[in-house]
Amino acid sequence: MYCPFCRHTDSRVMDSRVTDDGTAIRRRRQCPECGRRFTTVETASLSVVKRSGATEPFSRAKVLSGVRKACQGRPVSEDDLALLAQRVEETVRASASAEVDAHEVGLAVLEPLRELDEVAYLRFASVYRAFDSLEDFEAAITLLRAEHPATAEEPAPRPSA
């Protein structure tokens, strides 16, 4: 680690702490040459491998953008979307791999989005899974209905005589 003040090639770690959200380590360092102190923040990098083979850093904002489009006009708050994006990032990071396929990111979006809003889920799935026909939509809707047990309406109580 280079000293940002004198560019000395070494530094001594004085203190290390995990950030509040647990995704980074904050280190307080001191340069043995000039004696000045500075802070570094270390995070594990996560790259997404796209279909073209290109890699880019994982972006929670990009997940948010895609999900926001699917939720347009739906009763979903920005807080809900932020929590969903956080869940997706946690799921992807839990794979313990430095590189993850873009397909896996899409799969990580589907489940929390289905729990949040089924209409938004269908919108996202129709693009993500490239629905080609009405049958694709019908199959997805049938699957959603099968996951929800039919709630039989209870008859209204009869007035007592």
Topology:
Blueprint: E1 12-18, E2 24-30, E3 37-43, E4 47-49, E5 55-57, H1 60-70, H2 78-93, E6 99-101, H3 102-116, H4 118-128, H5 134-147
Parallel strand pairs: 4-6
Antiparallel strand pairs: 1-2, 2-3, 4-5
Summarize, please:
The chain has 161 residues and is an alpha+beta fold. 42% of the residues lie in helices and 19% in strands.
The percent of residues in helical segments reads: 40-55%
Major sheet strand order: 1-2-3
**Which parts are unreliable, with pLDDT below 50 for 5 consecutive residues or more?**
151-155
Number of helices: 5
- What is the number of strand segments? 6
Mean pLDDT across the residues is 86
Which overall shape is indicated by the principal axes computed on the Cα atoms?
elongated
Rg over alpha carbons: 24 Å
Element string (H = helix, E = strand): EEEEEHHEHHH
- Main sheet: strands, sense, barrel: 3 strands, antiparallel
Structure class: alpha+beta
**What distance lies between the first and last C-alpha atoms, to the nearest angstrom?**
87 Å
